Batch of 2 targets.
Target 1
Amino acid sequence: MNDSSGQLMAAVRNASAPDRDTRLALYRQMQACRMMEQRAYDLFMQNLIKGTSHLALGQEAVAAGFGVAMRDDDYSFCTYRGHNHTLARGASMTGILGELMGRECGLLGGKGGSMHLMDVDKGAMGSYAIIGAHMPIAAGAAWSAQYRESGQVAVCFFGDGTTNIGAFHESINFAAIWGLPVVYVCENNLYMEYTPIGEVTAVPNPGADRASAYGLEPVLADGNDVDVMYALASAALEKARSGDGPSLIEVQTYRHGGHSRADPGKYRPDEEVAAWKARDPIPMYRQRLLDGGIDEATLAAIDDEQAARVDKAEQTARASGPPLLEVADTDVWADGSSSWRN
Amino acid sequence: MAQLSYREAVAAGIAQEMRRDDKVVFIGEDVAAAGGVFKTTEGLQAEFGALRVRDTPIAEQAILGATMGAAMTGLRPIAEIMFSDFFAVCWDIVVNQIAKTRFMSNGQCSFPLVIRSANGGGARFGAQHSQSVENWAMAVPGLKVVAPSSAADVKGLLAAAIRDPDPVLFFEQKSLYGTKGEVPEGEHVEPLGKAKVLREGSDVSIVALAAMVPRALQAAETLQSEHNISAEVVDVRSLVPLDTTTIFASVSKTARLVTVEENPRLCGWGAEVSSLVAEELFWDLDSPIVRVTTPHVPLPSADALEDAVLPSAERIVANVVRLAD
Amino acid sequence: MDVLMPQLGETVAEGTIAAWHKKAGDTVERGDLLLDVETDKVATEITAPESGVLSSILIAEGETVDVGTVLAVIAVDGEAAGAPPAQTKAPGAAESAAPQAASGMPEKSADGRLSPVVRRLVKQHNLDIKEVAGSGRDGRITRQDVLNLVSAGAQSAAATGLATASQRIPFDRVRKVTADRMVRSKATSPHVLQAIDIDFHAVDASRLTRRNQWKTEKGYSLTYLPYVARAVCLAIRDFPKVNASVDGDALVVHSDINLAIAIDLNHEGLLAAVARKADSLSVSELAQTFNELVTRAKSNKLVPDDLQGGTYTLSNPGPFGTLFTAPIINQPQVAILSMDAVKKRPHVVESAAGDEIAIRPIGVLAHSFDHRAIDGAYSAAYLQRLKTIIETTDWDAEF
């Protein structure tokens, strides 16, 4: 199966702008992600969020583009940098902030933490902290959908560093030979943790340059253009849903902060950071919407609405206490217990 | 009753469950068209078709990752890891993903999957194809661990594992594949988490697992006829959940415990059982607890060497006799 | 200065603290009663060896320790180190009262290689581990050994029909020791019983005239016992082998006659107190000696010398009215004589003038002897000599 038709790239090039409602939805989702993630940063600095967290400030267009394009019952899998992806599937912002703060109201009851956000009811099938581990799991969800003929699609988000680990190779090969309805999305933010991706990858484009190894179309797109993301997502989802198999997509983007809270990102050249911040997806899109005829008031209303939403989520999460100690040994097994003996 | 070999009982157990629930699917390397390298799954693809019984590439992480993804989205998948030594290749999926995700998600999903694997030595395959690794699995919270010793238990426990809503690692001892036993006709299910007293006795409890069970039974015969020692033999069957009730009842009665395992000297399952008994049945013990294990070396391949290191019936007898005063 | 567990007898290796009469911090004078100690044979008082302050008590009541163990420490007057003045009752003194408490862990049991289940069963059934024979390797006591003992106890209780209504009275130290010694004596010596009846007419001729005055002056009764004791000393001169011990395959004949008398302690135990060199004592001296021994025994004031060195034993259940007794030899002696009740009986008296029936005070002397040491004929001859002495001696002259 050798897909050199350039089908997906063509869909991207030929895509017309989404309708107004979709564009507002995309803008709203990006702002929600940005504001929530910014608030997470602030709460961490106030020591209300412990441990570590991996923020995706600057990468909102990917989460929003795919989030809006996906069907409610589609499956998404993401990495530990997954707050936005989880929010974009419709998970509760209070639940997300609560989970980061280790509160009882947290999305995972305080048991999973920042790196494992999950909302199965919304199809957000988990954030995974081991590089690449979720790629075969996503293939499995796709296999299940295929077996059940449900039309569901699994979308799997991962970073540029993941393309060099074994599970990347096994999963895409597996998905390709079984023609599974899974979309693999490589968010290339140019750095594998603290190291420039070019120094550790044998090819210039870590995702797109590997696609042909699996008989898949090389796809490379601007991850900061939410219209492009939406178009690409729609095309890949349609391809999978129609039984035409998996895709491997590389989108280029940039994180405003370091790898994790412990990392101020000083290893990146100032000019590079400045250049990418000038291409911040949200102000760029805001301008495009204004240019396209949507009025300022509408956009301001969305800004205010999301700001209020974040404030309320933070308030509610703060008011929640820590989890009851009893939950520490619950739900290892399906019956809710953790018992290993009689 | 039918006479089945241990290997035939594998296919019989899978088939029984695949017939009653079409969510049960099965994947692995060479399992479908070839019927398995140990011929444990012959006939399954013919009966259930290529959509339900599928061959995979050599890609253990993908196999188990896909199994997990399928289990969390409505299927009841069975995966084969050809040799249990290969768990090391995909151990991340087993212990970091499968074992933990239900807990981390606070119960949002469950993983009704079975990973079956050919375990243990005695086949002269050398150190990377002969390990018994059920103790690795026992050490990780979130995994159920089963190891049958007979054809009947293979079928019955595999059926129970497939029906169980939690992840089960099912260890088939490859040295037992050729052994035969009576297997009940019709639907046969054995409960997980229940040990079985296979031979009653009064002087010592020999607690064994999988391929060590027949050797323990043989040793018990010798102990009775040549040493007038009455040994009780307990087949553990499930390491997790562990049937401490049955094991404790036996040791309370006999006041002596000998465990027999194929694991190496350190941190095998016998160490855990011994520790539980030492802590909770201290005041019932008339002798120190003894673990009969493989020495702490990789398994050698030459038949004479391998036979010398794996616990034999003779070694079990010698260890029990040494305890008796 | 240290107060040590004394050696209260040659074969005594340990002692038990029965009671402390002082507590840590008390001022003591030399000679003050500090504590009571029990050994295999006797309860003894330990007095303060020096004046000072009893700064610490190291062994608690009820504990059994080896001879030589430090029981307590007295800070002797003038000693500076670690001696708090009595008035202030320094906390250090109180703490050291139970030094084992410094470690949070209870003391390790010093009972050798007893497995956990054996220890539990012994405690549960209130057994004395010394009673349990070990059938395991190197004499190790196994669970089955203990269970056998328990079921044997249960069986014998059942066999005597005691069953469920019985009361279980654990042996105290004296009872345990007595039981052990009796079993061992019987296991050591092949006991033979011989008896002879004695006409105490001649003894009464002396005793009855003296007894009222004796009672008034001395405060205790003049019984048959000192007369018999005197007769025994005289008879032993002619039959020295009854006053001996078996040592391996030799008979050790003792030159001294140290007569032990069995004393019952109000049905709470049995002692044999010794009148040393009894053959040098007259009847009245014997009476006096015996009375002192009995008095000391009953008030717990016997000293080790009172209990050691006996060569021949007299047992006198006579006051209880018994006909005869087969006593158990007091090891390492070879014979023991039981003197039972002397009662008026019709008796044939022979004389030149012919036989008559008279009322005479008749008592049976029963002799248990160790058949390793002597034979029946020797013992019988000894008894005959004893009879002759008792029946024909001019007792007033011996008095």
Note: The radius of gyration of chain A is 20 Å.
Target 2
Amino acid sequence: MSMLTAQGISIGFGGVRALSDVTFEVEKAEIFAIIGPNGAGKTTLFNVISGLYDAQQGRVTLKGEDVTRLPAHALARRGLSRTFQNLQIFFRMTAAENVMVGRHLHERRNVIIHLFTLPSVLRQNRETRAKADELLRFVGIAELADRPAGTLPYGALRRLEIARALASEPEVLLLDEPAAGCNPVETAEIDELIQKIAATGVAVVLVEHDMKLVMKISRRIHVLDGGRSIAEGTADEIRSNPQVIAAYLGRHGQQEVARA
Amino acid sequence: MNRLAASPYTVVLAMAVVVALLPLALHSTFYLRVATLVFIFSLVVVGLNLLMGFAGQVSLGHAGFFGIGAYAVAVGPASLGVPSWLALPAGAVLAGILAFVVGRPVLRLRGHYLAVATMGLGLLVAMVFNNEAAWTGGPDGMLVPHLSLFGWRVHGPLSWYWVSGVSLVIAAWIAVNVIASPTGRALRAIHDSEVAARVLGVDVARYKLIAFVLSAVYAAIAGSYYSLFDGLVTPEAAGFLRSIEFVTMAVLGGLGSIVGSIVGATVLVVLPQLLTVFQDYEHIVLGLVMIVVMVFLPAGIVPSLAGVLRRKSS
Amino acid sequence: MAEFLQFAFSGLTVGAIYALVALGFTLIYNASDVINFAQGEFVMLGGMVTVFALAAGVPLPLAALLAVIVAVGVGLALYKLAIAPARGASAVTLIIITIGASILLRGVASLVFDKNFHSLPPFAGNKPFMVGGAALLPQSVIVLIGAGVIVLALWLFMTRTLTGKAIMATAANRLAARLVGINTGAMVGLSFAVSAAIGAVGGILAAPITLTSYDVGTLLALKGFAAAMLGGMGKPLGAVVGGLMIGLLEAFGAGYISSSYKDAIAFIVILVVLFAMPQGLFGRARVERV
């Protein structure tokens, strides 16, 4: 059974068709990449899948269950998590606190007990903090735990978002341009991190512009252009697909490549 | 000692010490009254701070809840035969229920839309108090009988000093507990990025509502204390100007800081007292304070000072 | 029928004033994203300055001109001293600033003027026209025509003059406007000045009918804001239509239902609009980008 499926997803905004009939499936422990030129609709697709936008047509299923109309926090409860292209970090909280929020679904959420200094609440806080420290170690920024997120360098923030997204123990993780703006060294570290995550059994859906990263670590690649799916396959298949080349480089570029 | 300094409970402890020892330093009933007023308004602002400073929402109508508490202890005994000691918690419960009911739709709004919606609601409440003279005595208000608690007639500045002081310490303790808990983290997350909070499984609507209801209850209790203390309640208790005063106190002291809430309340209670000679200038001063603070110290007094101290030590 | 018309006339008259306040809101909001809660104070200044200048012996037309000048001066001061320095502040901060300004102006007015109600003598006499059995005051006609002239003049200014288009450009995209050489600071200041003038004229025209005093500003601002929201925040035509509608709703509500909750009508309208159609009558729904 696929962990995540999208069937015929379509959505438009005031006359602009952002997505038309997008369909794909993602398996457990696989790294599935979605690529496409700017404006192809990749982030919009993530927003639909993660419950921030409502698709006008189509279905999304998570572990076999139809979750199309569910809001974001309900999807989180069913094992979906994501990061954001434009870093939605809680800048006023420390790095550790950011990850602690990620543990929200695994904490006791009864507000009444939170009004008092009860041993169970104190213990909860300690446990959540311990788990947060563990995740910060996993992504390699353990030493920054008590620094306010607003003071952290860019590469650390990208990894913090991933740690936070992992805190809810998701089975499907959507990574929206996790290496955006990173230099080659940072990108290589992110690449290793993503493979570590997939190795733990999580289905990773990756949106990325960095072609080397994508080709290297993804098992399958799905290509979007202008909101439509134009190709899906392994790295080698996609690399030589003329439609994909045309989408990125234009028709002239495609002819150049064909002649080369 | 370092752990004590780092713990959020230090603030509560410090407050308890101040409340306990302050009467030794204040020798006249006038100062006790001022301190009592500071405590009562701090109670409102600590609650409002949970909503504005931590959850990042805004309410320009919180005096509505204050007024409900204020009128509950007047209307209860006068028209419904409910004794004060029962009317007080009843008022708080009523305010909480109202906050729960209107909060759900209202908190879906953001920014200036939320501000205006809460303003409109506060104004409606004040209008009801003003118009329903048969119940509330209309624009001139009504007298409030003294509170009797297990035979102890709570009367006079010293009694009210203790009642409001102890209540404030308890309220601050509860606020600190909430902030340090998963609920507090959820609220702060919502403030910084609602979208990310959602995606991490936080039921944003629920938590905004929790902050709203909690702050409404704080305001109602403070309102009850206020009118019991004063002996008289008028529709101004629920008025727009009062709502603005609360927000100014919260913002002036510094949103997101419990100490800031108390500082803000202190400044805006003490300042008019200092200016009693210049009664007519009260509005001018309030307006100026609002503008100047928001322009030059948008983070508020306490966070700005803390920032300066931090920079000096690094 | 006569009763209906009577309510309609008074509703339209008061609605025209709300429309002018709403228009002032819209102008400033469009140019700077600021919701100016001191808008009602411009109307107050228009009426009060005229009244006191007149009482000091200044002939009516000059007194009115003086009132407009004072209001414009206050508007520019508000912008320069309170809004411009807080550039980039959050929506709530700006709201608090303008509310603070409104309170400040009210305080000053209570001292410079007094706390009583005042009115002006009607400009064209007191003899009402009888229309369908209802009395229509000449001043009402003046208010409606005056408001219409202002709306038309504003529209011409915004769409036909270079300065007006510069303000619209500032509203549409501040950075782009700066890049093409528009002095956006001056344009926002100008929008405050024009808003103040509009408000003041409204106050002067209305003073003979609705009494004026130092604190009429608050309710006017709230109702004007309700009108702007009803029409769709940022839409000038919406502001005018919204203002007239609220005026009518108030008049009919007070007449047929209850007059003690007349003021509540505008607030109920705000709440209904915010919950049912936040984009207003003429606005377009906004989508948040992540």
Note: Chain C touches chain B at residues 35, 81-82, 85-86, 89-93, 95-97, 99-108, 110-111, 218, 222, 225, 229, 260-261, 263-264, 267-268, 270-271, 274-275, 278, 290 (CB under 8 Å).
